[in-house]
Amino acid sequence: MTKTDVSYQNEGEFDFELPPQTRSVSLTHVVGDDDAGVRLDKLSAMVFDGFSRVQLQAYIDDGQLLVNEVLLKPKYRVRSGDLVQLMANLDNHSEDLPEDIAIDVVYEDDEVIVINKPAGMVVHPGAGNRTGTLVNALLYHYPDNAHLPRAGLVHRIDKDTTGLLIVARTKSAQLHLTEQLKDKSVYRHYQCICQGVPSDILRHALIDLPIARHPTQRTKMAVRDGGRMAVTHILKAQGLGERYSLLDVRLETGRTHQIRVHLSHLGFALVGDPVYGNAVKSGLSEKCRRAVQYFPRQALHAYQLGFIHPKTGDARQFIAPMPDDMQELMTVLQQ
């Protein structure tokens, strides 16, 4: 199979006008002897990475995918030496505006980006959060991601949770990583500081409790019969003083607020959780009580992320150090 030449071009580089934030793609492929006789739609799906066969068939029908500058049918059998050209406008899935917001990029290549999200950053725009989000930042730093759903996001973490997120840079990578989330070849480990002592917590090392929307408080989730399956694994528990613990938690499923809901339901609420938290434990020193009472967010950090690279097939793993605020809280609780 011969090499496909690919170039992604921003608005203004072609001689026709594109709508704001629209991106276009220009790809060419010269058919080799090995591919002679293959249907045009099948060959296009093989060589133009990042597009589904349905998308490519639509491009053929619209005259955006040509053979030797001629419009042909999807069933056309390509010949050795044919020049297959794709010059298409990419749909922009987001009307969100790029913003020059700093992001902590742990790793990037042509397929994926791994980001360490700070506390206080919303992942994607929604009601009341149209700006200042990770999506707005991605659209600024990676403008070609505008044609991807959710600007390439594969999963999300809560506003006040810190830690690692995967972002795809191509449609094929996004689909590949989404499938990995479903088959659990993406793994996510979290650190959290919660009420309770290790001996009590580790009796619930496997939490398999369904989660659904709270019956009366619509902004909350709850453990409920008939909810979606939710499985959380508590791998380690380290005592912090006499009443709190640092946990190492692995998610098997990814329900909204899953760790927070599961631990709170069992009586081990996260420190600082404004939605699912409990009153501060009694018997603490004044310094510890104040540290817990005024901790400004849920003490939850997505510290480890692993996945299969969608292009190379290699297993990749990344670790983000615990943020300073959680380290400082641990230091106080251990005094």
Automatic annotation (TrEMBL):
Pfam families in the cross-refs: PseudoU_synth_2
Alphabetized UniProt keyword annotations: Isomerase, RNA-binding
SUPFAM superfamilies with a match to the protein in the record: Alpha-L RNA-binding motif, Pseudouridine synthase
EC numbers, comma separated: 5.4.99.-
InterPro entries in the record: PsdUridine_synth_cat_dom_sf (IPR020103), PsdUridine_synth_RluA-like_CS (IPR006224), PsdUridine_synth_RluC/D (IPR006225), PsdUridine_synth_RsuA/RluA (IPR006145), RluA_PseudoU_synthase (IPR050188), S4_RNA-bd_sf (IPR036986)
Catalysed conversion reaction: a uridine in RNA = a pseudouridine in RNA; uridine(1911/1915/1917) in 23S rRNA = pseudouridine(1911/1915/1917) in 23S rRNA
Function: Responsible for synthesis of pseudouridine from uracil.
Protein name from the UniProt record: Pseudouridine synthase
Protein species of origin: Moraxella oculi
Lineage: Bacteria, Pseudomonadati, Pseudomonadota, Gammaproteobacteria, Moraxellales
